[in-house]
Amino acid sequence: MTHAQNTAPTTRPSRKPASAKERMDTGSDSQELKEIPPEAVTIAIFCALSYEAAAVRYTLDEEFECHFQSIGPKRYPYSFGRLRDHIVVIARPHRMGTVKAGQCAATVCQQFPNIQFALMVGVGSGIPDPSRRDLRLGDVAVSIPGGNHPGVVEYDFGKYEHDRFILGGNLDKPPGILISADGIMQEDEIMDKRRLEKVLRGITKKPGFARPDVDDILYDKNFHHINKGSDCSGCEVADRRKIVSRAPRPHANPVVHRGLILSGNSVIENPEDRDRLRRGYEDAICYELGAAGIMDEIPCLVVRGISDYADTHKQDTWHHYAAAVAAAYCKVLLRKVDGPDVRGISNIYDSQLLAQLLSFNTATGDRGSEAKLLPNLARQLGFDMPQLLPESRGLSRP
Ligand SMILES: [Zn+2]
Questions:
Q1: pLDDT of amino acid 156
Q2: Range(s) of the domain holding residue 47
């Protein structure tokens, strides 16, 4: 059997205009969006909340639409787009927590068969530990493995061993390709190349995503929030308030913290739980909800913008900005990851080819050798050339 016979894709790009119902389903101005088949998607980005997904969508180089005739209904809110060479789906579980996130991840893997790995991108609660690291609101936490942990550990799952509670769950490490890409980002940070800040500036211009114009105060763990249901204005002026003394940061740029992210199902919002549940993990930098469920289904890197300190002073003020920081990190990271390795992987090969074809600049027409090469490749793979490369797109024919 030839490669072409073996790899003819089951779903092809369609030129049929989207119906009114379909446009409502996608919730977008889909008449202007290119359509991709589910097989073209190679990376899943999971966001628990709508503003987290919006922050990621603001970083897309291009948005797509995708229809599901062959694989059933869209069970979750999906968005599609391109981040450099990668075609991504942004998916949102129906509810927070590891079980719902795991169900969403399993469905996404079924509906998009060529997904290679995932990122969970959104906000999380920072674990302040000033003697070890200078972690502030609006920083970003990334689940990079360390000496005694794989990057993410479940904080509400484990066992007692020799009178000590051992955090459990054998979660896999993040994909090596993402750890390597993060390594390049670390080099950029040493060299003071501010790529993350540049992307972040683009998001923070959008309504609601600007950096909050408020002080970043870390209260002592013995000083609890005063006015329940209200903001911290009462805490800030209270005579008995206790604040952890920290040197002012000379800049307002986000700092990337790499280490252990603790994942579970319950919101941590008092300093006693915060310090108890980490159980001695010195590398622990952040609590979050849901990622452990995704990592059971698909290799995943967790990226969390720090929106609070997991104490009683937890507020919503930093949520959007923290989501923007996480989305900016995600974009810079994926820029450092090459597109799918197409050699010898038939479905991925198709996806990569489609990605290239779809990203063609329709306005320029002839792109020289590339314009001749791609149609030839498409023909070898069994694509229907007139359908895939219509004259109306202005592509030159071999
Ligand atoms: Zn407070």
A1: 79
A2: 35-343
